[in-house]
């Protein structure tokens, strides 16, 4: 039912987030829990484009609250948003590796997740990210029972990186 009436106005999420961020630490825990649930429910109803548009301003309001809500949201749109945010971090950030690695453990990855993970692997190539991507591809193949365009994209990228096997041996191993 949530997908029947998607939220397209970024102001909806921003108003809930501002209200939640404005609560004092001593404020009633019930209000905080209610607003946190409302924020997650609102994000779940947003399509990818609307969420992407709202994200920069939302992160300015409260990075920790946005991260918490996106991780709890669970929709493919939220997972994609997390990976897009991670690609704004400095490439040396260990947080990218940790978050992508965790996402690689999702039991039934979506095509969107594999596509976003590939974009992240292109942004930062590391063992944890490549492992997570390969795990997500394997699980997606188990679900789809065919080679999807996303799986083919990962295979093409891997072959491009390997080339003729004459390059940097550490990179080829990676």
TrEMBL record:
The parts of the chain that form a coiled coil are none
Taxonomically, the superkingdom here is: Eukaryota
Q: Please report the organism this UniProt entry assigns to the protein.
A: Cirrhinus mrigala (Mrigala)
Q: Which part of the chain is the Vitellogenin domain?
A: 9-140
The record's listing under InterPro entries reads: Apolipoprotein_B, Lipovitellin_superhlx_dom, Vitellogenin_N
One Pfam family from the record: Vitellogenin_N
- The identity of this protein, by name, is Vitellogenin domain-containing protein
Q: Output the lineage of the source organism.
A: Eukaryota, Metazoa, Chordata, Craniata, Vertebrata
